[in-house]
Design a protein that fits this description.
about 230 residues, alpha+beta, 4-stranded antiparallel sheet, two-stranded antiparallel ribbon, 10 strands, disordered N terminus
């Protein structure tokens, strides 16, 4: 009975926090990664880097931070000298996107992360804390499992909406209890629709961000098998 009460309280708090986190989320302009907004930030980043002797306007992260989360843009370093204000769809302005840099060693490129995905993962983790241990279900790949949502109070399986196809994507859990989005179906479609020269062993996630302003954050590395289909990287 106490566990049920704790779970209910966690869910209520999570819902309240979600509502507070994105107070302007319903504004249409804050939900779309407009190309002109990204280009204006790209120009500001390029100008900052040139004037600072190669430095980038990013927040410091640990070295082991996943690559798509590793270089968040620090708008305090860009405004107002290089940019009048952070874009309306940026988290800092009440939007749902985190602006980040990829390819920082070669050509720093501005992309965005859909933070609604992070919120869904946070919601599931909140319920897992009440459970006390990871709700593993079936083995999908080595150290990767589907999630038994019934053990953490869900009546239907949650999902995230793909920023690439608008399809519903499942989530998976690792042997360490971390939760990730399963982008397999998106990757399969992108591999079929776009030219590429990937070989088994290559991380193929870049094919998604190459054709979209959004990066596949909260994902595990994928490669291709002998049939040119996406599989989790060993």
């Amino acid at each position: 009975m106490k566990a049920i009460f704790k779970l209910s309280m966690f869910i209520m708090v999570s819902i309240l926090l979600t509502g507070c986190l994105y107070p302007q989320e319903k504004k249409k302009e804050n939900q779309i990664p407009y190309e002109d907004q990204i280009q204006s930030v790209q120009l500001a980043v390029d100008t900052f880097q040139e004037s600072s002797g190669g430095l980038l306007p990013i927040k410091n992260k640990d070295m082991d931070t996943p690559m798509y989360l590793k270089y968040p843009i620090d708008f305090l370093k860009l405004t107002p000298q290089y940019l009048s204000s952070s874009p309306g769809n940026a988290y800092e302005s009440g939007g749902i996107y985190q602006y980040v840099l990829i390819d920082v060693e070669t050509k720093p490129t501005v992309k965005v992360i859909d933070l609604r995905i992070a919120e869904k993962i946070r919601e599931i983790k909140t319920r897992m804390k009440v459970q006390g241990y990871p709700p593993y279900k079936e083995t999908i790949a080595k150290n990767i499992y589907s999630i038994d949502y019934s053990k953490i109070g869900y009546k239907t399986e949650p999902y995230v909406v793909s920023p690439y196809t608008n399809n519903n994507l499942p989530l998976v859990i690792t042997s360490t209890g971390e939760i990730y989005v399963d982008y397999s179906s998106d990757l399969f479609i992108s591999l079929q629709e776009n030219d590429h020269n990937f070989s088994p062993g290559d991380d193929i996630r870049q094919i998604l961000s190459n054709h979209s302003p959004i990066v596949p954050a909260y994902s595990l590395p994928y490669t291709i098998d002998e049939n040119n289909e996406p599989v989790y990287m060993e």
